[in-house]
């Protein structure tokens, strides 16, 4: 097996050499190693030279030669794809061998070394393989450059073969049999290549002297710290890389990321989707602001400066590697201690924070080594989220693509909620630091805001692809009501819009293993123990809330941001009816002060039956999800909604307004066919909510077996991120090949 792979690689490599030796118009030798990018200067110089030669001589032969090179490059790319395919097939074989019940002797067919080579993202240098032509990475960037170290403890990189299996980062190379000497020589690079520097456009960050010195002195950086324990985390990822040749480098950029920072569903998505993408074989990073001192983080030593509204701002990059994902956090005093007030402050404060965040995030793949290697900008897609990071697609074009930088990097913008757009007066354009002709991307007019500056609008126009978090919402966005003023732009860009329903993080939200159900009388449960586990959680919740502990009274819950979007006013209008029934109600939320007041008032007025918990408590959210019988989501609009998904996993029945993602995910109960997952209503009115909830409570009391059927169907769904990650991958691939 090793021999087969080895020969496949060597053959391919040999072909590369032959191709590149054609004539002096060809690019410099480029070793075919994943994550190894030809230094930009070499490729760039070659391209410049080729262009200049052509312009000065006007020689048509040059055109032909160039054409020949392009053709050869295409052939090379095809060969690389074929190689990746072979690797995937090898992996399939190994998996099937492992899965079969074979004797331990047979298992030795795949040596540990080979197994690691295929399985561990960190040890597989083929992961994230890129096009044979280079990406425009500035030379001051720590993209793989002589990344191999002498490993024989003699302090010399002496060419001894024993040296060559280990990267500076401790990353393993494939077994020696995979490498021929020519190949190894290329990996080392030449000193002249290493020394080359490139003049950057002025907007690109100032390179950190701290970081430079750490490179030069080989001071330990984060990648030296990564140990076996980290790698083990990924070991449950036992399937072959599902992405196959589509594997790419993905950087999700978001203003919040659970469990470190979260105000709502965006935080959940930023914490979970990347893990599912990594499981498919992509190299995945999340970039978020560092709002506090998060215990898991290590200092990368990388510091850089960016201008925000004319002022120099230094950022400091921190990192953690968890569940196969690189989490990079950006520190600056503007983010400090904002964890519970992420979108707080006045309009220009938030705007300045997001400008800095986007500028600093976009260069992470150049400057922040993860596992020893920067991601680089080839084969790279950024996933920006909501208006807070909608500047990233704009910056990618304006600061980089227009200067021939990051040519192969793409951006996708995800709409989690279009109601928040980063609006301001047109003068706000001065904060985003873009050439004047970019103003038109931001300038909007609508009857409510008049002429204004709109960040989401610019991001939607600039992103290569747009995703929103359900099919229903993708449709609603095109309507005057659902688009919140951006429907025109959505319609114009419909060709690049796709709805993908969110998944849920089954590690975090699973009644079987939920860490918030292990104390205070709560218990973990599953479909098999639903009839005992859930009533126990209900009793524990009633006790914790100081409500009468009664098994027979339906306990209704609500969890959410207290925002007009969530329909809290409809619940409050329905409360007098609810308390006339034999029900208990608990509402957990934080947000608009008048809605917080309303919650407190309801609790005071109906203390026997109603609890209004004002605050943000993840533990309480889990406990309500487990202990309640019914979850209300009367949202006026709901792009996807996660709480109804969590509820169904916990055997809690959703009653929802049939909009957006709620409509997509909660199929209404049909008593004739014993199908469906909950109750829905079609107009955001308290009367309709009461009607749906009335039917739900009637079924709860009178039709226990129907009730259990709904619970079972909800719990048996596969709501994990796996399916959504697959669909995201399709979008990423589309973006990658888009020009
Ligand atoms: N007081 C509180 N204490 C503890 N936890 C609380 C809480 N209030 C809310 N949460 C938690 O925050 C999350 C809310 O997620 P949602 O998807 O329901 O709404 P949100 O509107 O924030 O997200 C937006 O983005 C997501 C993600 O795409 C879309 O699903 C959604 O429709 C869109 O509006 C859940 O995990 C919930 O438990």
UniProtKB/TrEMBL annotation:
CDD domains noted in UniProt: GT5_Glycogen_synthase_DULL1-like
Major localization class: plastid
Pathway listed: Glycan biosynthesis; starch biosynthesis
Every Starch synthase catalytic domain range: 249-492
Keyword check for Glycosyltransferase: yes
Record-linked Pfam families: Glyco_trans_1_4, Glyco_transf_5
Catalysis: reaction(s): [(1->4)-alpha-D-glucosyl](n) + ADP-alpha-D-glucose = [(1->4)-alpha-D-glucosyl](n+1) + ADP + H(+)
EC number from the UniProt entry: 2.4.1.21
GO cellular component: amyloplast; chloroplast
GO BP of this protein: amylopectin biosynthetic process; starch biosynthetic process
InterPro entries for this protein: GS/SS, Starch_synth_cat_dom
Location in or out of the cell: Plastid, Amyloplast; Plastid, Chloroplast
Region (Disordered): 142-192
Compositional bias per record (Basic and acidic residues), positions renumbered to this chain: 179-188
Biased composition (Acidic residues): 151-165
Family as reported in the entry's similarity comment: Belongs to the glycosyltransferase 1 family. Bacterial/plant glycogen synthase subfamily.
Record-given protein name: starch synthase
UniProt lineage: Eukaryota, Viridiplantae, Streptophyta, Embryophyta, Tracheophyta
Gene name of the record: SSY2
């Amino acid at each position: 097996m090793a021999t087969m792979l080895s020969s496949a690689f060597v053959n391919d490599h040999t072909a590369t050499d032959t191709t590149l030796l054609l004539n002096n118009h060809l690019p410099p030798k480029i070793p075919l190693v994943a994550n190894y990018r030809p230094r930009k200067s070499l490729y760039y110089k070659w391209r410049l030279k080729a262009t200049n030669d052509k312009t000065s001589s006007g020689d048509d032969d040059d055109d032909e030669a160039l054409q020949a090179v392009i053709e050869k490059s295409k052939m090379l790319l095809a060969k690389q794809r074929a190689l990746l395919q072979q690797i995937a097939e090898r992996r399939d074989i190994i998996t099937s061998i492992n899965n079969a019940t074979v004797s331990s002797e047979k298992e030795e067919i795949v040596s540990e070394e080979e197994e690691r080579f295929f399985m561990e993202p960190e040890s597989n240098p083929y992961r994230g393989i890129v096009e044979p032509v280079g990406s425009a990475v500035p030379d001051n960037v720590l993209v793989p450059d002589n990344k191999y170290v002498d490993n024989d403890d003699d302090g010399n990189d002496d060419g001894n073969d024993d040296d060559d299996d280990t990267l500076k980062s401790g990353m393993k190379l494939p077994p020696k049999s995979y490498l021929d000497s020519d190949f190894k020589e290329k990996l080392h690079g030449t000193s002249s290549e290493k020394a080359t520097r490139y003049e950057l456009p002025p907007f690109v960050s100032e390179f950190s002297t701290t970081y430079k010195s750490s490179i030069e002195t080989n001071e330990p950086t984060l990648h030296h710290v990564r140990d076996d324990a980290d790698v083990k985390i990924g070991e449950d990822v036992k399937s072959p890389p599902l992405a196959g040749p589509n594997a790419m480098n993905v950087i999700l950029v978001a203003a919040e990321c659970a469990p470190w920072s979260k105000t709502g569903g965006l935080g959940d998505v930023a914490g979970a989707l990347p893990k599912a993408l990594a499981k498919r074989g992509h190299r995945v990073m999340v970039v978020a602001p560092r709002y506090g001192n998060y215990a898991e983080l290590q200092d990368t030593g990388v510091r850089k400066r960016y201008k925000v509204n004319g002022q120099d701002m230094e950022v400091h990059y921190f990192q953690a590697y968890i569940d196969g994902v690189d989490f990079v956090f950006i520190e600056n005093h503007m983010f400090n201690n904002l964890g519970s007030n992420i979108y707080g402050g006045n309009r220009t404060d938030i705007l300045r924070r997001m400008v800095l965040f986007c500028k600093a995030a976009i260069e992470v793949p150049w400057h922040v080594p993860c596992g020893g290697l920067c991601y680089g900008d080839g084969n790279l897609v950024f996933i920006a989220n909501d208006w807070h990071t909608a500047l990233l697609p704009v910056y990618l074009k304006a600061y980089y693509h227009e200067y021939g930088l990051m040519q192969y990097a793409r951006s996708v913008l995800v709409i989690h909620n279009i109601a928040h757009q980063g609006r301001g007066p047109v003068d706000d354009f001065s904060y985003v630091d873009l050439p004047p002709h970019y103003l038109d991307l931001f300038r909007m007019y609508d009857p409510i805001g008049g002429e204004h500056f709109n960040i989401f609008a610019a991001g939607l126009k600039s992103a290569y692809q747009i995703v929103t978090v359900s099919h229903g919402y993708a449709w609603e966005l095109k309507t005057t009501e659902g688009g919140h003023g951006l429907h025109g732009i959505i319609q114009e860009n419909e060709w690049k819009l796709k709805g993908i329903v969110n998944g849920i993080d089954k590690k975090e939200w699973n009644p079987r293993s939920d860490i918030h159900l292990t104390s205070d009388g709560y218990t973990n449960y599953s479909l098999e123990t639903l009839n005992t586990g859930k009533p126990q959680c209900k009793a524990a919740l009633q006790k914790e809330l100081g409500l009468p502990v009664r098994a027979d009274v339906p306990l209704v819950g609500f969890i959410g941001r207290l925002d007009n979007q969530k329909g809290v006013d409809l619940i409050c209008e329905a409360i007098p009816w609810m308390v006339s029934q034999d029900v208990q109600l608990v509402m957990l939320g934080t947000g608009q002060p008048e809605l917080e007041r309303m919650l407190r008032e309801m609790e005071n007025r109906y203390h026997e039956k109603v609890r209004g918990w004002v605050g943000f408590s993840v533990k309480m959210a889990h406990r309500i999800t487990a202990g309640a019988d019914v979850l209300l989501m009367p949202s006026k609009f709901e792009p996807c909604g996660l709480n109804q998904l969590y509820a169904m996993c916990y055997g809690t029945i959703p009653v929802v307004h049939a909009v957006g993602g709620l409509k997509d995910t909660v199929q209404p109960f049909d008593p004739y066919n014993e199908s469906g997952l909950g109750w829905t209503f079609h107009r955001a009115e308290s009367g309709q909510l009461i009607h749906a909830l009335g039917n739900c409570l009637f079924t709860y009391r009178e039709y226990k077996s129907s009730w259990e059927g709904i619970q079972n169907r909800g719990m048996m769904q596969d709501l994990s991120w796996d399916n959504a990650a697959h669909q995201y991958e399709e979008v990423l691939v589309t973006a990658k090949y888009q020009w």
